Amino acid sequence: MSKQVGAAFPCHTLPVAENHWFFGRRDILRQLENHLTPADTSSRLSSTALYGLGGIGKTQTALAYAYQKQEELDAILWISAEDEYSIQQGFSKAAVDALKLEEAHPQSHQKNMILVLDWLQKTSAKWLLIFDNVDSHDILDDCWPISKHGAVLVTTRDVLIATLPIDQGLEVNEFDNDEGAEFLLHLATKRRRVKGEFEAARQVASQLGGLPLALNQMAALINAKNYSIQEFGVMYSKHEKRFHRERKSGWKYLGYQHTLNTVWEISFTNLGDDARACLGVLSFFSPDSVPSSVFKTENPGELPALLLFCEDELK
């Protein structure tokens, strides 16, 4: 095999600068390192999917891992997989700008993808291919490299995508209250500092469900207004919906354009009718550990039309 391309190694196509405000996720980064960095004698492709809620930090974790490996790997190729156009642009950037493959052309998107996949298969270079924000198995079917070395990292909201051909799936979870408080204080550098702020930060983290995107955006509001954490907690309780719509400049999710509202809208748009009905019922219960028995019935004939999907047709 050969490394030959027109570009000098290392050559990477990372979408944004390194996020020096990245926080936590040490266990996930350690697992990625262990699984995606096989022994030199390995003759197989390694792959992992990070899955979890929108705004949970999957992309930022993948980006942190990529920067962690940038000195060690010859090529890190980042493909934004939100839609077909983004995928085409990602492979063309890899073929033309990064690898400088001889037959690549900026407008020959399909050919560029084939050229990149062919290079990944034949090269002896150390490479990492990242598919960010995959929402369909079809994307992986069309773009999956056939190789006996290298590594693939996928981010997705869908746990079902974290299966074949992917080796393993790692769930990215919300921060617990202590982690969330530390993250909020880590970001809110312009806050007005008062006694008791850590406990107040724990309460804010709990209110926000430990969601990193939410904590990040609220820290930007705290910095913009020079709130203390306690003051912000009071304001958030009064103006929750308004805060969810806002995104202050200077926040620390570089390259991420969604507010909390748009993140949830994207998630809900993809739900089918049965899933929407299920979510509506669950919204009246505790958000954690609702038993599946709630949706089981001994008398299907008593179910309203909206909940007929709860009937077990095989029973």
From TrEMBL:
One of its GO terms (molecular function) is ADP binding. Residues 29-190 form the NB-ARC domain. It comes from the Eukaryota. This is NB-ARC domain-containing protein. Pfam families: NB-ARC (PF00931).
